[in-house]
C-alpha cells in the first residue's frame, strides 16, 4: 500500500509542471472606455490557444461582452467584470461581439483568431479546417504529457511489479 502512495505522489509531482507550463501566452485584455462607450481595444488579433480577458472595474454603467454567434458570453451586465475565454484549437476566424445595452451606441468589437497552422502568415478562416493540410510542429501530439510524467508511469509500473513479486 505504501508503494501505491509513493507512486501516486511521484506521478502528481511530475505531471503538474507540464500541465501548468503548457499555455504561456499572456491574455489579451479588453477594457471599457467609459467616456465614449467603447471597448478598448475594439479589435484584437490573437492565435488559436490564446485567451481574451474582458476586464473592467467600477464602471457607472454596467456592461457585458456577447459574441454574435454565441461563441462567448460574459453573462449579465456588470459594473465590474473579469471574464476570460480561451480560443482552443479549431476555434478561429473573425468574431464580432457587442455590449448588449450599448450596442446601438456603437459599443462593438472584433476578435480575429488566426489558426495555429497559419499563424505566421496572418490569414484567418472560418468554419471547419479538416480539409487543410496540417503542418508538423515541435509540440507533442499530447502537449500535456511531459517526459517527467512518462518516466513516472514507468517508475510506477516497476514499483508495482516489484511489490507483486514480493507478495508471491
Biggest sheet: strand arrangement: 2-1-4-6
Query: How much helical structure, as a percent, in the residues?
Result: 10-25%
CATH architecture label of one domain? Sandwich
Q: What's the SSE pattern?
A: HEEEEEEEEH
Radius of gyration, whole Å: 23 Å
- Number of distinct beta strands: 8
Q: Alpha-carbon distance between the termini? A: 15 Å
Structural class: alpha/beta
CATH superfamily of one domain: Cupredoxins -  blue copper proteins
CATH fold node name of one domain: Immunoglobulin-like
Question: Which segments are poorly predicted (pLDDT under 50) over 5 or more consecutive residues?
Answer: 17-23, 118-144
The fraction of residues in strands falls at 15-25%
Shape: elongated
Mean pLDDT: 78
Summarize the main sheet.
4 strands, mixed
User: In CATH, what is the class of one domain?
Assistant: Mainly Beta
How many distinct helices? Answer: 2
Write the layout of secondary structure elements.
Layout: H1 2-20, E1 28-33, E2 38-40, E3 43-47, E4 51-56, E5 66-67, E6 81-86, E7 93-98, E8 108-114, H2 147-167
Parallel strand pairs: 1-4, 3-8
Antiparallel strand pairs: 1-2, 4-6, 5-7, 7-8
Amino acid at each position: 500500500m505504501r508503494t501505491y502512495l509513493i507512486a501516486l505522489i511521484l506521478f502528481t509531482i511530475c505531471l503538474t509542471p507540464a500541465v501548468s507550463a503548457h499555455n504561456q501566452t499572456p491574455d489579451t485584455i479588453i477594457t471599457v472606455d467609459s467616456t465614449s462607450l467603447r471597448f478598448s481595444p475594439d479589435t484584437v488579433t490573437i492565435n488559436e490557444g490564446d485567451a481574451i480577458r474582458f476586464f473592467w472595474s467600477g464602471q457607472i454603467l454596467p456592461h457585458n461582452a456577447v459574441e454574435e454567434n454565441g461563441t462567448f458570453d460574459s453573462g449579465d451586465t456588470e459594473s465590474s467584470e473579469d471574464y476570460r475565454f480561451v480560443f482552443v484549437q479549431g476555434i478561429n476566424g473573425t468574431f464580432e461581439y457587442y455590449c448588449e445595452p450599448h450596442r446601438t451606441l456603437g459599443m462593438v468589437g472584433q476578435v480575429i483568431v488566426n489558426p495555429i497552422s497559419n499563424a505566421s502568415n496572418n490569414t484567418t478562416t472560418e468554419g471547419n479546417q479538416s480539409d487543410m493540410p496540417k503542418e508538423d510542429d515541435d509540440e507533442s501530439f499530447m502537449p500535456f504529457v511531459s517526459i517527467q510524467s512518462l518516466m513516472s508511469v514507468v517508475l510506477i509500473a516497476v514499483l508495482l511489479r516489484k511489490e507483486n513479486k514480493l507478495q508471491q
